Amino acid sequence: MIKKENVIQEKSFQFALKVIGLYKILQEQREYIISKQLLRSATSIGANVQESSAAFSRKDFIYKISISSKEARETKYWLSLLQESDLVEIELKEYINDVEELIRILTAIVKSSQVQSN
Prior knowledge:
Layout: H1 2-28, H2 33-52, H3 58-85, H4 93-117
C-alpha cells in the first residue's frame, strides 16, 4: 500500500501542476467559469491524497482517498465539458487521459483498502 500511495501522491501532484498551467492558458483565452471549477477539483485530488497519509484509521484513509476519487471524476467532467463545448481552442485529450489514470489508481487503492479492512 505504501508504494501505491507514493505513486498516487506524485501523480496527483504532477497533475495539479499541469492543470495550473492549463488554467493560466484558459484564463488567457478568457474562459473564467469552468476553468476555476477545474482548478479547484484538480488540485483537490492531490490535497486529499496528501491528507490520507495522515489518516488516523483505515476508515479515515479510505474516506480521504474516496474524496480524491470523486474529485478526479469531477475534474474529468470539467475537462470533457471544455473539450466538447469548443469554448477554448486547446486539445484536452492528454489531460483527460491523465485524470482517467488517476481515477483507475484511486479506485484500486479504495478497493484494496476495503478488502484489507474486512
